[in-house]
Amino acid sequence: MAEATIHIRGGHLVDPANGIDAPTDLYIADQRIAAIGTAPDGFNADITLDASGLHVIPGLVDLCARLRDPGQEHKATIDSECRAAAAAG
């Protein structure tokens, strides 16, 4: 199945690696950012998302984790959970 092309319109893009912190458009093709600001030649969005008033932060990962330690050491510890996460990649 082909991946959808996506146009995220009007969101406040935060991309410190490229010095961008402003409202702009983002264009995604093949699960990657294809362009910022202006659509690439021939780009036809399958999906357009209106992100006006919202922040768009590519690469941001929710690092929230719930661990059992302290109090449930018989099930798992912070050490065993970290080793399991590292082994999973």
TrEMBL record:
Any single GO CC term annotated in Swiss-Prot or TrEMBL for this entry: cytoplasm
Keywords from the named record: Hydrolase
Protein's GO biological process: purine nucleobase catabolic process
This protein's record includes keyword rRNA-binding: no
Gene3D superfamilies linked to this entry: Metal-dependent hydrolases (3.20.20.140)
InterPro entries: DHOase/Allantoinase_Hydrolase (IPR050138), Metal-dep_hydrolase_composite (IPR011059)
EC number: 3.5.2.3
Enzyme class, spelled out: hydrolase
GO MF term set: allantoinase activity; dihydroorotase activity
Protein's name according to its UniProt entry: Dihydroorotase
Source species of the chain: hydrothermal vent metagenome
